[in-house]
């Protein structure tokens, strides 16, 4: 009996372990984070050597001051713009005619501030046309191509501007290089703007044009100073974190809209803030060893960037910037002073960090441009008092939808905490609308999500 029991128990134990191994194998084979294989491959195609090659050429133009020479083939902002255009046109050869590029110019008169004579202001713009003629959405990635000396009016002395903002410019170019080989339902614009150091001139030129011509810009990812990994003063060295600056409320949130925001407690849910949350989630999905830090400001303390021009024109826009800035390398003439090396030179660029930061941009642009449009008329039912929540909406105007995600978070949480899936156009949740915020995203077969939509009051 004793031997039988041992034999029987051993047999049962063996079956138990086999069963547990099968369960464990199944668990570990599951994909916890779902990635679009096309986007994952694109992110991995971003190349340090490509970034370095383009950066080396960019800093070779001496100065890229907006006030610098525009007729030389080798020096100044004119030569810089022409070279960037040539790179975009090279990438266009792999796009089957979908990528087109040009220099968008305007004559800018002396303004008595940072422009002391009339100049030709030019942005280098490459447009990857969407494949769906009914999809009018536009997604923009930007960096500024101009640089500056300690004196912003000095248009002659060398100003390599490797990080400010050679890093953003090269990231835009690298995204264009990789993404031009692929197609997306929505349109993506890659732009390197001029005049940032003279007062965001190129960005205001583009943003004003977009508003006047009613471009359907849904997101602007502005990259400025995002290629160096260390700070002065604190001497922190870190290439594992990246900041996203976003405003909480839009300049368009006035009148009844502002009253509604106050009544519903949505001061932290403006379109730019929602975009920042989206960038954090998608970026960390595709890029390893990089944490995105959301900063609740439109920009650094009392400072500004090109995204501000789009924000002020009513578009959702954010600034993407390295975690630890080094002020001995911003707006500084190249020199050695008191044993400190000043100047924004290529030797200070961390190209692995720049690769990861470029990947954040690419992953988000691709995910947005592949996703369906946002759900329409998202509402939350308030016709009676309940301890539950009922949401309903209409299908997006464009895109093939597989289903919808209901996003949910506590009112104090900076990011979405739950993601519930449905293929219906409504959902009842056993959570009180008094205690949580909700939003709805459309999602397609490959898992590409639209931007979230906060519900309006429905009765």
Structural account:
By secondary structure, this protein is of the alpha/beta class. The chain has two domains: 37-370, 3-Layer(aba) Sandwich (Aminopeptidase); 376-458, Immunoglobulin-like (Sandwich), CATH 2.60.40. Helices cover 31% and strands 23% of the residues. It has ten helices and 17 strands. It has helices at residues 2-29, 37-45, 48-59, 76-92, 166-179, 201-212, 255-264, 271-286, 307-311, 351-370; strands at residues 99-108, 119-128, 137-144, 187-193, 216-223, 241-245, 291-295, 317-322, 335-337, 340-342, 376-381, 389-394, 403-410, 418-422, 426-429, 436-443, 456-458. Helix 3 (48-59) packs across helix 5 (166-179) and helix 8 (271-286) crosses helix 10 (351-370). The radius of gyration is 25 Å and the shape is globular.
Could you provide a short overview of the structure?
This protein has 459 residues and is of the alpha/beta class.
Question: Which key terms come to mind for this protein?
Answer:
single chain, 459 residues, alpha/beta, Aminopeptidase, Immunoglobulin-like, 8-stranded mixed β-sheet, 4-stranded mixed β-sheet, 17 strands, globular, disordered N terminus
Helix content range of the residues, please?
25-40%
How many domains in all? 2
- Mean pLDDT, nearest integer? 93
The span between the termini is: 73 Å
Order of helices and strands: HHHHEEEHEHEEHHEHEEEHEEEEEEE
**What is the third-level CATH name, the topology of the largest domain?**
Aminopeptidase
CATH class of the largest domain: Alpha Beta
Question: How many beta-strand segments?
Answer: 17
Strand order in space, largest sheet: 1-2-4-3-5-8-6-7
Runs with pLDDT <50, length 5+? Answer: 1-30
Largest β sheet strand count, sense and barrel closure: 8 strands, mixed
Structural class: alpha/beta
Strand content: 15-25%
Number of helices: 10
């Amino acid at each position: 009996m004793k031997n039988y029991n041992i034999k029987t128990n051993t047999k049962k134990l063996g079956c138990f372990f086999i069963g547990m191994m099968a369960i464990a194998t199944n668990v570990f084979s599951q994909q916890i984070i779902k990635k679009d294989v096309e986007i994952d491959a694109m992110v991995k195609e971003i190349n340090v050597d490509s970034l370095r090659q383009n950066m080396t050429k960019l800093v070779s133009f001496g100065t890229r001051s907006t006030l610098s020479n525009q007729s030389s083939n080798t020096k100044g902002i004119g030569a810089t713009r022409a070279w960037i255009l040539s790179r975009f046109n090279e990438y266009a050869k792999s796009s089957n005619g979908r990528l087109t590029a040009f220099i968008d110019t305007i004559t800018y008169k002396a303004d008595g501030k940072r422009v002391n004579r009339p100049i030709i202001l030019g942005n280098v713009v490459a447009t990857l046309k969407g494949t769906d003629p009914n999809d009018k959405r536009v997604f923009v990635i930007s960096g500024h191509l101009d640089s500056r000396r300690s004196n912003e009016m000095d248009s002659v002395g060398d100003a390599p501007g490797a990080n400010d903002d050679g890093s953003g410019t090269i990231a835009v170019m690298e995204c264009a290089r990789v993404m031009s080989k692929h197609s997306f339902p929505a349109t993506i614009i890659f732009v390197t703007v001029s005049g940032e150091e003279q007062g965001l001139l190129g960005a205001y030129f583009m943003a004003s044009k977009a508003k006047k011509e009613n471009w359907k810009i849904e997101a602007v990812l502005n990259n400025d100073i995002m290629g160096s990994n260390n700070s002065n003063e604190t001497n922190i060295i870190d290439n594992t974190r990246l900041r996203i600056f976003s405003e909480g409320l839009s300049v368009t949130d006035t009148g009844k809209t502002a009253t509604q925001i106050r009544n519903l407690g949505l001061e932290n849910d403006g379109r730019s803030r929602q975009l920042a949350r989206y960038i954090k989630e998608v970026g960390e999905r595709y890029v390893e060893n990089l944490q995105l830090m959301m900063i609740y400001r439109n920009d650094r303390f009392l400072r500004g960037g090109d995204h501000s021009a789009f924000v002020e024109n009513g578009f959702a826009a954010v600034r993407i910037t390295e975690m630890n800035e080094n002020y001995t390398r911003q707006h500084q003439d190249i020199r050695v002073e008191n044993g400190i090396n000043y100047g924004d030179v290529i030797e200070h660029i961390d190209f692995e960090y720049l690769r990861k930061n470029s990947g954040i941009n690419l992953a988000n642009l691709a995910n947005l441009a592949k996703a369906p449009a946002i759900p329409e008329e998202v509402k939350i039912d308030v016709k009676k008092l309940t301890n539950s929540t009922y949401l309903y909406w209409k299908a997006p105007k464009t895109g093939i939808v597989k289903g919808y995600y209901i996003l949910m978070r506590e009112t104090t949480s900076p990011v979405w905490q739950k993601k519930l899936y449905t293929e219906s156009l409504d959902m009842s949740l056993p959570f009180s609308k008094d205690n949580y915020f909700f939003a709805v995203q459309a999602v397609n077969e490959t898992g590409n999500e639209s931007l979230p939509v906060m519900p309006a009051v429905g009765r």
